[in-house]
Design brief:
Number of helices: 1
Strand content: 15-25%
Number of strands: 2
């Protein structure tokens, strides 16, 4: 089956990014699709941020639990 499609393409830095859709797709649907892509990317960014904060907190907790051996004691 042959099908006509519309392609949006943008070059950012040295990478080419493409969006494909039906050539007769209504613009409100195209706009909604793009919003949903942005929402998906936002969820990924939020997940990465939460993971990084969790790792940072665990590292801080671990560091606070370890005894300090750098202290000099008077004899």
């Amino acid at each position: 089956m042959l099908k006509n499609i519309a392609q949006l393409e943008v070059k950012i830095n040295e990478r080419i990014h493409k969006f494909l859709t039906d050539h007769d797709a209504p613009l409100p649907e195209v706009k909604e699709a793009l919003f949903q892509f942005l929402k998906y990317i936002g969820h990924i960014e939020d997940s990465v941020k939460e993971h990084q904060e969790k790792i940072k907190k665990e590292a801080e907790d671990k560091a606070s639990e370890e005894p300090k051996t750098d202290e000099v004691k008077d004899v």
